[in-house]
Amino acid sequence: MYDANHLMTRLAGAGGRDRVFASRPGLEEMSYGTLFDGAGRIATVLAAAGLRPGDRVAAQVGKSLEAVQLYLGTVMAGGVFLPLNSAYTASEVAYFLADATPRVVVCDPGQADAIVPLAPEARVLTLAADGEGSLTDAAAGLPPMEEAVPRGANDLAAILYTSGTTGRSKGAMLSHENLASNSLVLRDLWRFTPDDVLIHALPIFHTHGLFVATNVALLSGCALHFLPHFDADAIIDALPFSTVLMGVPTFYTRLLDHPGLTREAAGNMRLFISGSAPLLVDTHEKWQARTGHRILERYGMTETNMNTSNPYEGERRPGTVGLPLPGVDLRVMDAGLEVKRGEIGVIEVRGPNVFRGYWNMPGKTAEELRPDGWFKTGDQGVVDADGYVTIVGREKDMVITGGFNVYPKEVETVIDSVPGVHESAVIGVPHPDLGEAVVAIVVADSPTVKEGDVAAALTGDLAGFKRPKRIVMCSDLPRNTMGKVQKKALRDDHAGLFES
Ligand code: AMP
């Protein structure tokens, strides 16, 4: 069923050499031929640097097509690609490099002096966001590697560190099969063809931009409109020449603020996809009213690639993340038992998408990955009678107040429907009597909306124990680069709210 080099042979096979792989504002288009020649040259550089099959190549670089070539070149050379968030500081990078012991580290030229002492055993090469650096210099003089180094389905292709909001960040080990199987399923489910043009404005150090967007495009042989970062003007300009957008929910809320977002502007588009954080029902509805398109929401995580998706054809239900992907089993568990449909519990998934464990952390792996392949996602959710999955929050974000469980999403949904409320985040804060108290951090559309207005609007809709003990108005919610609300930061900021 699988080729000797599972991922590379699939990725390299789809686009004809002369087809456009990527266009970039103000720069030349790059063809599939140029993409893979460059990747092959980088593979030659890596092999010459002593990379052996299974060795790690760490990359903390800006977003560029050369960085995509570095990913492909690493896999071609039999290596394991380890992208690092470009926002990580030197001390954070020090931990990843010590943990992953890469053979090669590629960093921005401006960081090389700081990185070299952190990886004394590694060869350090540079790559700037404009594609210049010692990596591309070395590659320019070398022939492309002709054949990818053979790797099997279970061999690692990448390690991605999770964002690690609690404790140490963990390196999720992803195999060739994990990546290839998931991108094939998504390509077919979302009906990608060589005629598509995908607007790519996500970072490429995260599973969403690197695997979901880039691998699906490569597998279908379609073109990317490759933007260095999110830019509402640039996306609006690209819409008439594009067919698909993949984004985090903040892409959609910010685009809704743009006057250029119209039904006509989106007339050539066939699909808008959202994931990595919950999409508000309100955003879904406003988007449909403005553009005529129903955003397709899907759910996944670093350890599992994608797990569920709303259907391409059929009902896309706002507020849900859709149905399990073909080949992915999903169950909801509580106290070691599978719950009935309609009941809340922790989501577990099993399938070819599920990672091979955490790098160097056998204990953590054993805690979260069961021997029979089920992975405890840590997300709490519920499956309805038709099989649609709704995420109600992270297990660690659930609030236990006076012995009662409160699921933040339920309270947030009610608060968000109060007129004048833009969005909210519900957290648990230490409380002398209750253990934890429910606290809502609320962003209003206008400063005239006050705590009391929100509190008054909640009385009929929520049981007393679910109602926030305190409502705190603020101008915006703290989010990471993937648009996820940083609940830990909110808990830290409000930890002293009930201290006497
Ligand atoms: P990451 O590993 O950084 O991709 O984060 C994965 C986590 O993001 C999941 O475990 C979920 O908690 C959350 N997530 C991803 N997609 C969605 C979605 N569509 N709705 C709600 N939460 C999501």
Explained architecture:
The protein is α/β, with parallel strands linked by helices and 500 residues long. The chain contains 15 helices and 25 strands. It starts with 5 loop residues before the first helix and ends in a 7-residue tail after the last helix. The strands form 6 sheets. It has a 9-stranded mixed sheet. Strands 17-16-18-19-20 form a 5-stranded antiparallel sheet. Helix 1 packs parallel to helix 7 and helix 2 crosses helix 6. Helix 14 links the parallel strand 24 and strand 25. It binds adenosine monophosphate. Adenosine monophosphate binds next to strand 13, strand 19 and strand 20. The site of adenosine monophosphate has 18 residues, from strand 13, strand 19 and strand 20.
What's the main sheet like? 9 strands, mixed
Shape: globular
> Count of helices?
15
- Poorly predicted regions are none
Helix content: 25-40%
**Ligand list:** adenosine monophosphate
> Hey, roughly how much beta strand do the residues contain?
25-35%
Q: What's the mean pLDDT score?
A: 94
Total count of strands: 25
Topology:
Layout: H1 6-13, E1 20-24, E2 27-31, H2 32-48, E3 56-60, H3 65-76, E4 80-83, H4 90-100, E5 104-107, H5 112-115, E6 123-126, H6 134-140, E7 156-161, E8 171-175, H7 176-189, E9 197-200, H8 207-220, E10 223-226, H9 232-238, E11 244-247, H10 249-256, E12 271-274, H11 281-291, E13 296-301, E14 305-309, E15 323-324, E16 329-334, E17 337-338, E18 345-350, H12 362-368, E19 375-383, E20 389-394, E21 399-401, E22 404-406, H13 408-416, E23 421-431, E24 435-444, H14 451-458, E25 470-474, H15 487-493
Parallel strand pairs: 1-10, 3-4, 3-5, 5-6, 9-10, 9-11, 11-12, 12-13, 24-25
Antiparallel strand pairs: 1-2, 7-8, 13-14, 14-15, 16-17, 16-18, 18-19, 19-20, 21-22, 23-24
